[in-house]
Specification:
single chain, 6-stranded antiparallel sheet, 16 strands, Tumour Suppressor Smad4, alpha+beta, Rossmann fold
């Protein structure tokens, strides 16, 4: 067992936080994330499946706890007064490649001057959609970019929202067991996963499949 600090953006950590971590470090298996929402995503990618305790060191962190409550939070975790919440992740498959997302899969036109034409299995068969792109999000990710383009937050299922469509389309929340297929009619399209630096490029007639991952995240 050990408590680790994930501090990817090198926030200054006060001496009291370090003291608390050292005091309890052998009593829990826990990753404390320092920063905002992006730090949670980075920590989950590096340490998948290990419980995370996000601390607020940023103005943008929908899931963070106050750093000044750290000791009481750790004591509550040790004494099982609080439990982590389990969040689903998404799995995106393209050819023989797989990416895992805690927040969202973001598909967008490579050329910002031209709309992306595509078909998605959550829309009627053979319906071609025109938009700047498509966001497929988890409940955890629905409070981020997904909310900004759909004005929607949800707690169950998988969210599917168009980014700036030429014809208004409703945001859809489908069952978390749904497999979502996206086919590019006119591209190319870029595919981004959370805040990861890697991305894919989809050409005309290529398909991407998105579904619930077997992995999940545990976050206090």
């Amino acid at each position: 067992m050990s408590i680790k600090i994930y501090n990817s953006v090198n926030h200054q950590i006060d001496s009291n936080t370090i003291r608390i971590v050292n005091q309890y470090k052998d009593q829990l298996n826990l990753i404390i994330t320092i920063g905002g929402d992006g730090s949670i995503l980075g920590a989950e990618k590096k340490f998948p499946g290990i419980p995370k305790l996000p601390l607020r060191f940023s103005n943008i962190c929908n899931h963070c706890k106050s750093q000044f409550r750290l000791e009481s939070l750790i004591q509550d975790i040790i004494n099982k007064r609080i439990q982590p919440k389990r969040y689903i992740k998404l799995q995106a498959n393209f050819k023989k490649q797989t990416f895992i997302a805690l927040n969202e899969i973001n598909i967008k036109a490579k050329n910002p001057r031209s709309a992306l034409r595509f078909q998605v299995s959550t829309s009627p068969v053979d319906t071609t959609l025109l938009a700047d792109g498509l966001i497929v999000a988890t409940p955890f990710g629905s409070t981020g970019y997904f909310k900004s383009i759909s004005n929607t937050v949800f707690v169950q299922g998988i969210g599917v929202a168009l980014n700036n469509p030429t014809n208004q389309q409703p945001t859809k929340i489908v069952s978390e067991d749904t497999s979502i297929s996206v086919k590019i009619i006119r591209g190319p399209a870029m595919v981004f996963v959370d805040n990861q630096p890697e991305f894919w490029q989809l050409q005309k007639r290529e398909n991407l499949t998105i579904k619930k991952s077997l992995e999940s995240a545990l976050i206090y």
